[in-house]
Write a structure and sequence with these properties.
The protein is an alpha+beta fold. The chain has four helices and three strands, in the order E-H-H-H-H-E-E. The chain has one domain. A three-stranded mixed sheet has the order 1-2-3. The chain is globular and about 45 Å long.
Length: 100
């Protein structure tokens, strides 16, 4: 059992690709398509997609931080971890490091 799992962007992306997580954690429902690799587009379109992904990742992290006690316990069980840490920016723009 891992003592601490930190939910970084790469970890969240792998969670989106794993049906075990994406079907049980509500923050991840229907988000996989947003993070698909673009086939090819103009620079302006690519910049808009990049910004959309950044904003969506911030929303996912905020959502994970606000999970109910039951979903937090489920997330710990799925990771086989004692604690989970989420680092995100709150509504005021402050960086919050939440460990549960």
């Amino acid at each position: 059992m891992a003592k601490l799992v930190v939910l970084e962007d790469s970890t969240i992306l792998s969670m989106l690709n794993d049906p075990t997580f994406s079907e049980t954690i509500p923050c991840l429902f229907g988000k996989k398509d947003i993070f698909k690799t673009p086939v090819g587009s103009c620079g302006s379109c690519a910049q808009k997609k990049k910004e959309r992904r950044r904003a969506e990742m911030a929303r996912i992290k905020s959502c994970l931080a606000a999970l109910s006690a039951e979903k937090r316990a489920l997330l710990k069980k799925l990771f086989d971890a004692e604690q989970i840490r989420v680092v995100y920016a709150n509504a005021g723009g402050q960086v919050v490091q939440l460990t549960f």
